[in-house]
Amino acid sequence: MKAIFGSYVISAGKSLDRSECLVKTSYLRKGYSADHIITSADMVFDAECCGRVVGTVMMRLDSANGLYGDATYSHELDAMRLSGRKLAELSRFVIMPGQPTSSVMGALFHFVYVYSYLMNGVTDLICEVVPSHVAAQKRLLGFLQIAGPKRCERVGVDAVLLHRTFAVESS
Questions:
Q1: In 10 A of CB 79, how many CB atoms?
Q2: pTM of the entire structure?
Q3: Measured distance CA(44)–CA(169) in Å, rounded
Q4: What is the average pLDDT across 26-55?
Q5: Cα Rg of the chain, angstroms
Q6: Is residue 167 very low, low, confident or very high in pLDDT (cuts 50, 70, 90)?
Q7: Long-range contacts made by residues 137-141, C-beta under 8 angstroms, separation at least 24?
Q8: What are the b/e assignments for 98-118, b being 16+ CB within 10 Å?
């Protein structure tokens, strides 16, 4: 699945290969571990400009295997599930330094919205981010912090749980 969004070609697929170098370089520079493993519940969205991957995000649909966030925030995620919410999680989000963050995020998240909400009925997105990324996620993507910070062992940093809903609450 591919589409043009502004000056970006956005692709959706089941491989980490195209964006692996971008992610490893970014994570290494920040001291994070990059040990993502793709499953059948995952979709990788890559933003390409002038033949180079300049941004990426991985989305995991909730399944019997759960979400990455369950390791740290199972109580909060289980409460959402029990209230009938359908969850998906964003992870492995990287934008190449020097790229216009809001443009790349807009292009990627347009695809995330189509795939998660319109194609898969997801009502709520969650993601774990380092505290310094909270303000941008709130401002640019409408996320709200709902828990944390707690230690995220998967990446090796303290992280907070962010949440945003797609569905309008019914009365």
A1: 12
A2: 0.90
A3: 28
A4: 87
A5: 15
A6: low
A7: 137/162, 138/162, 140/101, 140/102, 140/105, 140/106, 141/105, 141/109
A8: ebeeebbbbbbbbbbeebbbe
